[in-house]
Specification:
By secondary structure, the chain is mainly beta. It has one domain (about 5-120): DNA-binding pseudobarrel domain (At1g16640 B3 domain), CATH 2.40.330.10. The chain is about 10% helix and about 40% strand. The chain has helices at about 25, 80-90; strands at about 5, 10-15, 15-20, 30-35, 50-60, 60-70, 75-80, 105-110, 115-120. Strand 2 and strand 3 (about 15-20) form a beta hairpin. The two termini are about 20 Å apart. The relative contact order is 0.21.
Length: about 120
């Protein structure tokens, strides 16, 4: 897997990627994920219509999410309203963040279907 910056995602290593949050994260319960991150999510073999259930672990909380590929070949991660509510509780003033100063979602690969999530303020 190539280390680098791909859209609003940074691949730090084979076990850690970072997403700069944006409106879609807070309002639409999802984010597009670049093709370069598919190895991290163990979805290299995805084809149109594929999906995979995963868990996001944050402290003592477990949140269900889905990785999916739409008919155009775009890959996304989508989560349920409980994770969105968790984010909104953590960042209630997210609409006030300046562009490129949105908080970071850090994903650490724990297994093929579990990812530890942590948060940082954007320093990039």
């Amino acid at each position: 897997m190539e280390v680098g910056i791909f859209d609003s995602w940074r691949i730090i290593s084979s076990s850690l990627i970072i997403k700069i949050t944006d409106r879609s994260v807070f309002e639409y319960n999802m984010s597009g994920i670049p093709q370069e991150t598919r190895t991290f999510w163990s979805i290299d073999d995805f084809i149109s219509g594929s999906s995979k259930s995963i868990q996001l672990l944050c402290g003592n909380n477990k949140f269900e999410a889905t990785l999916l590929m739409d008919v155009t070949g775009r890959t996304r991660i989508a989560w349920r309203s409980d994770f969105r509510d968790f984010l909104l509780n953590k960042y209630p003033y997210w609409k006030d963040f300046e562009q490129f100063k949105f908080p970071l979602l850090c994903f650490r690969n724990m297994s093929e279907s579990q990812y530890e999530v942590s948060f940082e303020m954007n320093k990039f």
